[in-house]
Model the fold of this input.
Amino acid sequence: MTSSDMAPDRSTSQPGVDLPGSHHRGLEAAQDQRRQLEQEQRHVTAVYTRLDELRAHTRRRLAEVRRTGAVGTHQNRSERDAFATLYEDRLAQLGSVEDRLVFGRLDLRDGQRRYVGRIGISDAEHHPLLTDWRAPAARPFYQATAAEPGEVVLRRHLQTKGRTVVGLEDDLLDADAVADDVVLSGEGALLAALNAERTGRMSDIVATIQAEQDAIIRSPLDGVLVVEGGPGTGKTAVALHRAAYLLYAHREQIERSGVLVVGPSRVFLRYIEQVLPALGETGVVSTTIGDLLPGIEATGTEDPAVAQIKGRPLWARILSNAVRARQRVLPEQDLKVGSLRLRLRTQDMVEAQTRARRSRQPHNLARVTFVRHMLNALAAQYAEKVGAGTEDHADIVEELRSARDVRVALNLCWLPLTATGLLADLYAKPHRLAEAAPRLSAAERSRLARDRSAAWTAADVPLLDELAELLGADDEASRAEAQAEQARRAEEVAYAREMLSASGAGGGLVSAEMVAGRFAGGGTASTTAERAAADRSWTYGHVVVDEAQELSAMAWRALRRRNPRRSMTIVGDVWQTSSRAGARDWEQMLSRPLGRTFRTETLTVNYRTPASIMALAQQAMQTWRPDLPPAPVTSARDVPDAVVREQVSDLVGGVQQVVHRARGHGTLAVIADERRHAALIEALGAGDGSDLRAEVVVLDPAGSKGLEFDVVVVVEPQELLDGGAPADLYVAMTRATQRLHLVHTGQLPAPLASTH
Done:
């Protein structure tokens, strides 16, 4: 079976005209093809001309808004900032769709021709020139088939380079209804896309979305959608296109709250960063779990077994216990306030704590209730001792608040806490952890022990987020921060006033406050994405999670807080789970944090991995993990000699030779155990994966998740199998789009050694 035979049959694809017979007929066919290209070029040129006009118009409007300056009422300035942000966003959108702006055409039974592209564009008279791919009118471009064409007669894919039409690919859906002036072209847009070399950046699939993918992309906003599928089935592309579609179809509902995209690594996020802007959307927050908390950098590493312990759902109880343990009843004692001695009474402390807990506020906010009740109780003692009246109550409370003994006692009873300080204490103080986590074994608690100054890890971030939720903002810290901001602002205004006075600038028309503030050209109000990324408590309109099988139960709790409506798109593959805290079963992992109401869709066609590579990888995984359910994945194509086994005596030298032969055949990744990276990078002159556009990159299996390369060199497969989960080797093997080299000095794992 040829690769084209194996491609999904969306419709009847017609080859370009290659008629036997006279040379004259061949020339006529070539001329007809040229006329078709010229016809399409005229329309594409008209669309780009209109795009340039819209860009120029938007730039002019933005410049006009900026020229108004930071003057007028607060409402005027807010309106100016809002308009500036609107024009900046529109300009960013118009600038990001330059490449392949027009990619499709639909010929309908009523004679209409409808062009499909990245965004919708109309001419000056509001006649449509281009239909947004997300609009209902564009849906037949993805859903129509020869069996069910609907109103579609012909679907045409336009291949462009820059602003020039260079090729056409036609799907004929109704031969009897096609217009007489149409000359059919091409051999299939999907096959051409599959065989194209990769670039080190993920491209959108907007021109070649398949029917099963389109149905998922356009499925309803509400609820949790789990999209499962094997390697290369387009899960990531579908998730990103779905984010773009939802922002288009439900803009009023989710634009103000935004969309959060969670990926497995920063390298992965750089790999996909161009997709959403190319689809006309720029206001999405992208992050990893390790970068989820503003101000926290998870740069530390730890043993996978330790990360697994931290990912367990019982940490919700452990952390709650740790917070509760900081709410104490001290032994009764005397407190010195000036010349008086007041009694710290058990009854008062118990009652104050009870009232604070009944408020059901986080620890630091509930502390306000606790302190207020304790100060009132102590004030009653104070008034009784000095014979003060009720009119003196406020003064007495202020005196108590400033008394050292009172401050120390109340802090010891109910200390203001930070998430980082409390979690660092748990790790550094065995008695604290034992007190909060009796359900962990002594050996597990010992593995968690570390110095307070140790760097945070990605597995710590969900725990810090849980604590931040339990603690709330530190009221005293918030006041201090506000005071510091006021002081900073006053200093800037004073400097500006001094500058204006010394220079004589402004002529009385410019105030020091205006100089100290933000000038019109110095930036506008922050975008939704910027505000969301800086706010831990922000709730998003929709959350997209890629490589979701790697997330722990605690990570899912953190994501649920960011989307209480539980409107999520979750994509993953349990065959690729390498994290010990990750999912082996979606129902088991998601039912607790997200409820049992999620729906599941399965992608079954592998568009990336040649069939021979996929068959070898699946056979191996079924040997290593017979407990996993069968993976219904079929490759859309194969490549001759896709699997190459290379036994060498010198590993680094052997890899050098393989890489030397493979250079020039597209993107190339060397996937090896992390301990070998330094030697391989030096020997190959390769990149470390931070820039996937490098000629050769060296990665570990975890770092390659979600990525794809034309050529993949897997170094010492048995080493990867011994050092991690079987899924690591499975992931490494299925990154290749053209050829997989298995380079080894010892024996290959048994399932990979067979050449049959």
Remarks:
- The mean pLDDT is 85.
- The chain has 31 helices and 22 strands.
- The radius of gyration is 32 Å.
